[in-house]
Sequence to fold (607 residues):
Amino acid sequence: MAKKKKGQLLQIWRRLKKNPLSMLGMAILVILVLTAVFADFIAPYPYDLQNYGAAKQFPSKAHPFGTDNYGRDIFSRVVYGTRVSLQIGFISLTVGALIGTVLGTLSGYFGGRTDTVIMRFTDILMSIPKVVLAIAVASTLGPGLVNAMIAVAISSIPSFARVARASTLTVRDQEYIEAAKVIGAGNFRIIFRHILPNILAPIIVQATLGVGISIILAASLSFLGLGVEPPTPEWGAMLSAARTFIRDEWYMVLFPGLAIMLTVLALNLLGDGLRDALDPKLKA
Amino acid sequence: MNDRNSPLLSVRNLTIHYITDDGIVRAVNDISFDLEKGKTLGLVGETGAGKTTTALGIMNLVPDPPGKIISGQILVNGKDILKFKKNELKKYRGKVASMVLQDPMTALNPLITVGEQIAEVLRLHDKLSRADSYIKAAQMLELVGIPSDRINDYPHEFSGGMKQRVVIAIALACNPQLLIADEPTTALDVTIQAQVLSLIRDLIKKYGTSMILITHDLGVVTEICDEVAIMYAGQIVEKGDLEAVYEHTGHPYTRGLFGSLPSLAVKAHRLNPIEGLMPDPTDLPKGCAFHPRCPDKMPECVSRTPVVIETEPGHFVRCLLYE
Fold:
């Protein structure tokens, strides 16, 4: 019956493949994820093994990224840090994005009083700088990995709510939404089947930028002693801990910094490509 | 069910206003009409005459806010759909009454294949399984003249005329009793218009669907409709069988409409448009709404609102000339 029965995901994948930069980003991300999963096998030393005899060593064969002021192998810590940072970044962002998107979509779709209540709530969240908000949440809940994630998630809700609401407002008045009402579709169906997929592109872009921001935000919390507690290796925390040594032992900040940069870059490249691939209107 | 003579659709004294900050827009003012099973009614009028609002009213989809159905009844099979609960409305829309929207370019969800969009309505109403809904969707595509192997294509892969065919397929998928076509050919070019119109005509004849065709093209009406209703400023000013309205035109506005059409038989250098513009619907003139533009204006027209008069059996005119 159908001459080209191919799944939607396959089509998106085909379009994504045409973009070399996003493939690069995806490759980096895959490597990072694999690193996180197989950290136990990749890292030559445990992340918390201290060796004062070999403190502050310049990168060498035994310690490719050098060692820190406690003599811990920086390479191992960066490898394990991948696990922590990606975890915080993705989980907190996913939670924040889900809540924010649902709130924003409901707000935009129903309008009126629903809209007022939800948007004033996000306005309040937005009026507080992200870092301060995260600090407030984290200091209320106490330090720790999970609490840091909750703090980061809450602070990412308003930006998603706004993006989702703005996009919903434009999609809501499209004729195909009216057409969906005409065929007897309910609000739930219209929101989740007709509106959400159509506002996904800006949300994906927001999310790719957001993961980077979340990773940095989590790092800031760790720096202030409100996030991940030592000796758990977290890139941002490593950066903060090493910053006093930047003058003579620059490699202590270089590698965690590079790791953050590489992750954010990979996410941005992939996100851009995904946005193009997800939009069939741009399909050549 | 009802006895055979009762109409499928009966609109009684329907009044719909849009309540905005700039005033009350009187979009539909006290209109009444019936539509028998299997008949086609042409709803003709200028932009802003209230045609689309009437149509949305029949679907009970007037956007609220700002729209409000002030009064009236819309009886479909004898039941007032304005009193329907949410669930009843869901079952009514798409199954009993369906609608073809004006612009096929935006009436399809760009992210969902056309097949899925047809299948969706079938699954919603006829409770078909996924596989069955696709089989039926393919049949619907063939029915509107699109090869069924295009079932997995996205809307942007179709031309405007084909999109409108898909929209028609969606509207007719569940074999509704009433189809509202809101200027289905306005966005299409002339050759495609003719194709789409004959497609609609054939399909509703085949399935015995009643239709309300909204248009501002009097030529289109003669091709498809059995009856015609002329709307002006939210009121039906003249209604009757095609022949009655075209041959014994009653209302000065209808005459004006015909006068502004080019004719092959009569050679004219200039057309005769109706002078002036449609009145502002937030500030309708007193008396007859058409009096400022009417060539046959009488002193009473300014003060007295005309009522509907039956000038010959089945031919209704709302004009003081006949009172």
User: Anything to note?
Assistant: Confidence is low (pLDDT under 50) at residues 1-5 of chain A. The interface with chain B takes residues 1-6, 112, 174-176, 178-186, 189, 193-194, 197-198, 280-281, 283 of chain A (CB under 8 Å). The CA atoms of residues 105 and 192 of chain A lie 9 Å apart.
